[in-house]
Design brief:
There is one protein chain. The chain is globular, with a radius of gyration of 23 Å. A 5-stranded antiparallel beta sheet has the order 1-2-5-4-12. It is 30% helix and 18% strand. Among the domains are: 74 residues, Sulfite Reductase Hemoprotein, domain 2; 129 residues, Sulfite Reductase Hemoprotein, domain 1. The chain is built from 17 helices and 21 strands. The structure holds siroheme and iron/sulfur cluster. The site of iron/sulfur cluster has 13 residues, from loops. The site of siroheme (SRM) has 29 residues, from strand 1 and strand 2.
Length: 570
């Protein structure tokens, strides 16, 4: 039988699961209640993602359990929805308690400004979700084929403009929430209202999006959210001290698969300028264009970046204008200079203070000499402002009064964490994804390897570069969860102990890096990079970053790379 090349391709299996799920319910309620197994079915596993949950197993235990003829050590990861990374002290305390009672017990700050719990047994999921609900937190749409946790600026008290941008990000997050009551019925025991209005997903439709969708809001000169890696981005345009509106970016994304040249990281394009009141209309038009034109047959080709790459930016812009009724203005000038979080104490425009605390890999737990969990809990107990989780997996203690400043200092000093911010800037900027033992897709270590990787590079950097900011990011596989393709030094896991090494991204997140070595151990990478770093220290021009220098001096031009940058409008 010959295959007709013109015949429509079959839809990806997930499309069938979504269609049959009755707006994300599926058989989840019954399967969660079933105490005879620690897992849910393969179809339900896909649906749990829309509820912020991933079924995982402890990969450290796999071999021993298999040898003993036992099942894998299954548990769940839960990701909280936390637009702009904002959490109140009361929320912090409740999450901290829940981590002790029903999770690993650590809290993990993610690269999209939220918390993850790991190691939650199926039987404890409802306790966790109900506990979060008591402080008005949920995990709706934290994962799945929907608009994920919206990223936004972390220090709103710094100026009224930043607060406005935060509000706009929060509004879009609220606006884009799925309408289904499935979450409330399954996890919070809400009764189905018989005979009520039929539920309609007005924006998503019954099969939601072809793939995950990510939005961020950036306030130049900081590009802490890595705006060009987002499906949809809003760059705040501030003129004469006021928020004039936003430049809209579309089609960024980082995930790739080793050996599949049809997958690639891509920087977003700048579509043009809009005013504040047009944000949700334009965002909805971008989202629905992707809903209707994204590839639902191949999940490796289903992100917005591929829709735009295939159909062209001009087509996409025209479609968004026609759907939203908004005509883009000329993109306005903006300049990003940094991706770095502010560490230590800083004064806000309203007279309060904020304190940026570095947390390596965002892991909040107590280890001897580093009782981060206890210290932050004590701070939460007395703090009257907010916590803001940052895109670099750190925390900002925000809105601190003059009177509380010394109290917070004393807590940090008592636990030996007052020195946490006085580390090399390489360490302060470094990111790693979770990887082993929980991530089912990890090919190599990441979070657990990061301290050792940093120490090795710090030795090399003693050659006069200790106080220079160089971004180093590590992931356990090419999906890019710690945005390694935007790092000046990017390690991407290939196999146990082996990484692809990328160099040459710009420090401000406007140019992707390029492959320097396809497979290398960390020790070999340090040996190979040591003379390069030394040469950079001697030969760089004034103010030239390591990535820019590598791009100029070390790396060959690669005409085939997709939209690697540099992204500016000035
Ligand atoms: Fe991610 C899948 C962790 C940010 C691209 N990511 C996963 C999963 C859920 C693995 C899985 O599918 O089974 C990881 C769970 C590990 C664990 O045990 O916790 C995971 N991703 C993370 C986090 C926790 C990394 C971290 O250490 O902070 C980040 C959670 C963000 C959040 O709060 O929502 C995280 N992931 C990212 C980012 C960065 C970003 O969004 O700014 C990216 C690259 C940007 C992008 O999306 O293009 C990213 N994650 C992926 C991909 C590749 C998507 C693609 O288009 O190819 C996958 C795999 C997939 O979707 O099939 C993935
Ligand atoms: Fe897992 Fe890969 Fe993401 Fe790391 S980059 S958390 S290994 S999916």
């Amino acid at each position: 039988m010959s295959i007709d090349p013109a015949a429509p391709k079959p839809l990806a299996a997930n499309e069938g699961i979504k269609t049959a799920s009755n707006l994300l319910r599926g058989n989840l309620k019954a399967e969660i209640a079933d105490a005879t197994t620690a897992t849910v079915s393969a179809d339900s596993e896909q649906l749990t993602k829309f509820h912020g949950l991933y079924q995982q197993d402890d990969r450290d235990q796999r071999i021993a359990l298999k040898r003993a003829g036992k099942d894998k050590a299954y548990s769940f990861m839960l990701r909280v929805r936390l637009p702009g990374g904002k959490a109140t002290p009361r929320q912090w305390i409740v999450l901290d308690d829940l981590a002790d009672k029903v999770a690993s017990p650590s809290l993990r700050i993610t690269t999209r400004q939220t918390f993850q719990f790991h190691g939650v047994l199926k039987g404890n999921l409802k306790t966790l979700i109900k506990g979060m609900h008591t402080v008005l937190l949920d995990s709706i749409a934290a994962c799945g084929d929907v608009n994920r946790n919206v990223m936004g600026p972390v220090n709103p008290e710094q100026s009224p403009v930043i607060e406005q941008v935060y509000q706009d990000s929060k509004n879009w997050s609220d606006y884009s929430l799925p309408k289904t009551r499935a979450y409330h019925e399954i996890w919070l025991d809400e009764e189905l209202v018989a005979g009520g209005e039929p539920e309609v997903e007005t924006m998503y439709g019954a099969t939601y999006l072809p793939r995950k969708f990510k939005t961020a809001f950036a306030v130049p000169p900081s590009n802490d959210v890595d705006i060009f890696s987002q499906d949809l981005g809003f760059i705040a345009i501030i003129e004469n001290g006021a928020l004039a509106g936003y430049n809209v970016t579309v089609g960024g994304g980082l995930g790739t698969s080793h050996g599949n040249a049809e997958t690639f990281p891509r920087l977003a394009d700048v579509l043009g300028f809009i005013t504040r009141d047009q944000v949700n209309r334009v965002a909805e038009a971008v989202l629905t264009t992707q809903r209707d034109h994204g590839d639902r047959t191949n999940r490796k080709h289903a992100r917005l970046k591929y829709t735009i790459q295939d159909k062209g930016v001009a087509w996409f812009k025209a479609e968004v204008e026609s759907r939203s009724g908004v005509r883009f203005g000329e993109a306005r000038a903006f300049q990003f200079t940094t991706i770095e979080d502010k560490h230590g104490w800083h004064k806000n425009a309203d007279g309060t203070w904020f304190y940026g605390l570095h947390i390596l890999s965002g892991r909040i737990k107590d280890i001897p000499g580093w009782p981060m969990k206890t210290a932050l809990r004590e701070i939460a107990a007395i703090h009257t402002g907010d916590f803001r989780l940052t895109p670099s997996q750190n925390v900002t203690i925000s809105g601190v009064t003059e009177a509380q400043k010394p109290v917070i200092d004393a807590i940090l000093a008592r636990h030996g964490l007052d020195k946490e911010n006085n580390r090399s800037r390489l360490r302060l900027n470094a990111l790693s994804c979770v990887a082993l033992p929980t991530c089912g897709l990890a090919l190599a270590e990441s979070e657990r390897a990061l301290p050792d990787i940093i120490s090795k590079f710090e030795t090399v950097l003693e050659a006069g570069l200790k106080d220079d900011a160089i971004s180093l990011r590590v992931t356990g596989c090419p999906n890019g969860c710690a945005r390694p393709y935007l790092a000046e030094i990017g390690f991407v896991g290939k196999a146990p102990g082996k990484y692809a090494l990328y160099l040459g991204a710009s420090y401000n997140g406007t140019r992707l890096n390029r492959l320097f070595s396809p497979s290398i151990t960390i020790d070999d990478a340090v040996t190979k990079l040591a003379p390069i770093i030394k040469r950079y220290a001697l030969e760089r021009s004034a103010g030239e970053g390591f990535g820019d220098w590598c791009d100029r001096v070390i790396l060959p031009r690669d005409a085939t790379a997709h939209n690697i940058g540099t992204q500016t409008a000035a």
